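Handout, section B. The chain below has 259 residues.
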Amino acid sequence: MHVKGILIFHLKCKPQCLIAGRREIRDLIGGFETEIGKYPFIASLLFTSDLSVYSQQCVGSILNRRSVLTRATCFWNDSPDTWRIRVGSSYANSGGQVHATLRIISHPELNPYYSENDIAILHAAVHFTFSDFVSAGSIAGRNYVIADDEPVWAVGWGRSSVSATPSEIMRHIPMNYINIEKCKYIYVYWAMYPTDDMMCAVLDQNKHRNENQGEQGSPVLHNNVIVGLTAWGLQYLYSEYPGVSTRVSSYTPWIVANA
């Protein structure tokens, strides 16, 4: 794990604005196909309801040889044996290395109803074998700053369009960072209140319409530094609305302590 500067955002919303079920809204829609060699720190997080068949549900980012950073509400009190970690593959449900999960560490002040402190770390039962396709990502440090309208990218798996069948191939999508005050103003009409521990980014409407900004836990990258973890937003319904992410820089000491 490498610590850089960082980015920031945080949000509150009433229960009716929450994710429509932790596994219902998950797709990265639109964007472009990419490959694991470009993002070797990306992990596919696999869930099972029967301890038999595991399928990709969330996205994580490798911090070191045992740890993956992601969004806490992906798990919602799940036991570690219901999740596995796939690393080293461009595909959501095949290839690479698959690891059992030893423990899930959610932030102790997680409030799932308002997506506050929505951050977690998974420890793999067996250490990852690093290679050109498996390596640690860099996270934003406490003082990392992003200027308005700077380009950022979300990375995960999903669909080429809203009506398309799910794609197994990794996708990434470009967005533009917007400051928290602007994000708060946009969402106040819906009684949703981003806070300073969250960050927002919006799609370029001239290039990308009806697209989603990421899957749960998908890293948001600025200059290939992990600055956010995709959380929520109305971009699923209205593409002009920002996607809201957990701001990694607000949690750098906690990440370092628990990784």
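Note. Residues 136 and 199 are 22 Å apart (CA to CA). Compare this with the example in section A.
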